[in-house]
Amino acid sequence: MMQACFWSLMTISGKPSRDKRVVPGLIAIQLNRYTTLDADLVVIGGGPGGYVASIKASQLGMKTICIEKEDNLGGTCLNTGCIPSKFLLHNSNYYNMASNKNYQSSGITVENVKVNVDKCMQQKQNVIRSLANGIVLLYKKNKINWVKGHGKITNPNQVTALNPDGSIQSVINSKRIMIATGSEYTPLTGTSIDEKDIISSTGALSLSSTPTKFVTGGAGFVGLEMGSVWQRFGSDVTTIDSSSTIGGPNIDKEVSQILRNILTKQGIKFKMETKVTSANKSGNSINVSVENINDSSKKENISCNTFLICVGRRPYTHNLGLESVGIKKDNLGRIPVNSKFQTEVPTIYAIGDCIRGPMLAHKAEDEAVIAVENITGGTNNMDYNSIPHIIYTYPEVAWVGKTEETLKQERIDYKVGKFPNTSNSRARTNLETDGFVKVLADKRTDKILGVHMISSFAGELINEAALAVQCKVKAEDVARTCHAHPTYSEAIKEACLTAYFGKPINL
């Protein structure tokens, strides 16, 4: 590491600003003082993709520097996404279970159940802080240099780290550059977010009290999960979406409909095929104006205390200096890459939410490992078909591989094996019988093409299915694999038995 003095690029009134004070020991006139560093790989972004890429590169012997502008490593996932949302989902479900009169039939009675939202939020921050500190320790263990700043590419082998005021903090010369800048929420045109009353997912994870009426503009992963949290804590929740199905565009339609029925029974109201046209504060409430997408004359105003805008996320790819090195973004703002995750500039790579594919933390992590391995001579590719998707409602929803709709579009002959949770011993024992497992297998080869499930532990169960899809396992193979009893995973075995043999054992 070397401390150097350079001419500043900042100007005052259009002219270079030069500090003409003489500094002992320096020959050049000092304008701006910053650090120059050298690396084998500089990673822009310290989220799931960025920090995993940094660690993997260091493990493979590369001198690695990570540039991250936020106070904590871990990106959106750790600080304002996956981790805090799962904390609130988990704890709100505990509260819901303690308040649920159905459990009195099992001999469990809990009276005067209360939720302290402030204490819940404090503990959420403790979890985030602990995990963020864990990444810092991993960086130290792997000798990774974290430069705090906004990374901007200044040539194919150089990244400048900028301070919040735009001044230069560091210049890193590197053999290769990896962009792992993630994504940000997509705003709703004409609506201003204050993160108190009109909020993004960040605000939904930090409310100081339970809203009386909570409206979500979107019925995807975020809308369903945050709607579930605050409905369990006592909010009257309405979810609005322009689609006819909940859970996003890639969910199996049968699963989507059953999930909607379950969440409706829990108390969440849905207004589908409806779009939000505006949201405005009026005193202590918010007026959300909506209209039917099939008939614009059907308009309505919905009043609420808190309005969550969750219409999707967009790549965070602005002010990265891409244009200066000839990298062109696509019409969605994503960075095009090849199978090795190289951009059109061979020394620059990109992974995670800022490139094609689902915006999932585990997708970014796997891309990070493969990209770094390819930098060091590997020839690995990413199998996007075997990436699991999970919606952490209660029960959870998970899937991997192809849906029935996709198989029909691709004209692939398939067979279906389904098994309901009502016939699963563990689910019956735990009074968690909502949902089922559906296995889709190739009619000719018996290869598992997709698995879709609704279950209390779907987020854990789906990984067996992901392995099956990744390794091109047959339904017969899973059906003949001994599964422990009584477990939820037996439903996967029974569904595979149905797909292969035509009949399950326990139905």
Automatic annotation (TrEMBL):
S-S bridge residues: 77-82
Binding site for NAD(+): 218-225, 312
One of the GO BP terms on file: 2-oxoglutarate metabolic process
Residue positions of the active site: 485 (proton acceptor)
Cofactor annotation remark: Binds 1 FAD per subunit.
Domain Pyridine nucleotide-disulphide oxidoreductase dimerisation: start-end pairs: 387-495
Domain FAD/NAD(P)-binding span(s) in chain numbering: 40-368
Top-level taxon of origin: Eukaryota
Signal peptide: none
Note, other: The active site is a redox-active disulfide bond.
Name assigned to this protein: Dihydrolipoyl dehydrogenase
Biological classification of the source: Eukaryota, Metazoa, Ecdysozoa, Arthropoda, Hexapoda
Gene name of the record: LOC102655391
